[in-house]
Amino acid sequence: MENIIIALIFLAAIAYLVRLVWNNFNPKNTAGCSKGCGSCAALDADKIIAQMENHKTI
């Protein structure tokens, strides 16, 4: 009985690791980086450039 429980825990851990790897390399889940937090997708280069131009002091 113990062997079955250990085998189930082991298979669950393997499935979890496979899911992590799959999500990291799946192109539809990546938003510009491999972290998966989505913060890279929130980057707006035009807004940053406009802010930098407004803060220039000459």
Number of extended strands: 0
Distance between the termini: 77 Å
- Give the low-confidence spans: none
> How would you sum up the global shape?
rod-shaped
Description:
The N and C termini lie far apart (77 Å). The model has no long low-confidence stretch (mean pLDDT 77). This protein has two helices and no strands. It is 59% helix and 0% strand. 0% of the residues are buried.
Task: Write a brief structural summary.
The protein is mainly α. It is built from two helices and no strands.
Which terms would index this structure?
mainly alpha, single chain, FeoB-associated Cys-rich membrane protein, 2 helices, rod-shaped, 58 residues
SSE layout:
Blueprint: H1 2-25, H2 45-54
